[in-house]
Amino acid sequence: FVFFFLMIRRPPRSTHCISSAASDVYKRQVEYISLRFAILANVRTVKKTKEDMGKGFNTAFNASLGIGFATISLGVLSLGLVAAAYISSYIGEGSTAKDYSDICLYLAGYALGASVVGLFARIGGGIFARAADAGVDLTKSEESESNAGAVADYIGDNVGEAIGISSELFASFSEIICATMILSCYAPEIVAEPGMIYFPIIVFSSGIVASMVSVLLATKHNPKSTKQMEENLNFQPLSAALWMTPVLFILCIYLLPSQMQLAGDDYIITRFKLSIVALFGLWGGYLVGKSSELFTSHEYRHIDDLARSCHTGSATDMIYGLSLGYMSTILPVAVVIVVIYVAYVCASMYGIAIAACGMFSTLAVLISIASYTSIANNAVGLSRICLLYTSDAADDMQCVDLGGRRIIKKKKT
Fold it and tell me: DSSP label at 159?
């Protein structure tokens, strides 16, 4: 209603409102698909885990793959359709760079709509999830069939994790694509070849293919322990980055102009520099997730030190845990600073946009890993509520859950 009200009050800006409304429609579809996949997968994971732990892992992870790839695919498809519709409607023979920049500015409304929807979904769902979780703990009958709070906690995990993460990241990569396309319109060499404006969309589309290949490699056998599950999940981002490296280099070399220059900027940008910047962004994103592993994995001393601090009381546990959280931000922030500096030195502001495209190009895998944790955790809760939690299945269900919990703490960074 707000969008249509603005269209009536300010007709010249109605195109921005149409873009925002379009992003809202597609985002609602992503939320519905994510919630549907998560709910159905929870029950099926319980059933498959009782048969075999490996089958339970594959069931939960296959559902999370549906969430991850649906989020990115629908986002790229919708943004590409909106951009193509605007360009075919407003661009013709004799169009200038100003016309292209106006079209791409219309796409900013798409990013705005995605951000607004993602804000409410992430914050609202996150608060509900945390409140429900705390309520269950206070009743001291966690995940009991007689505790209605356990059902609220179950719903909160689906809303806060499956929907919240997909909504937040949908908005993030939509903003990156829109910003890159807007900057592209200020380069006469790119405007001369209109197809080059779609370069960020092509990068994310190629990232979907690279993510598919990494998934096929990482889930080719059934894990039999928590360690094997962690290894499978850990291999996903690395495999996607490895496959995306030559693809990203080739795209930059063959699709971008040999030299370009942004309007009002004296810096000459070459496609080789842009390829280096894109690879810096790709591997910088991988290092951000890998660096947080030092503070979240039980294989390193920080988690063991935090566990030992619990023996001296809750105060030392809280102080050490908070300080550990502060320390964990140092390396990711340093990596991001280095990537931004290298991107700006090599290719000015356009280089920063290309580096962001490379950093988020394998986003489908990261969303899948994040959604896996919610599905596996809810499967454990459902098995307890429905009295299906036998002693043998208990160990298997905990392995399926823990295998993702230790990974998601690293990738959420």
Answer: I
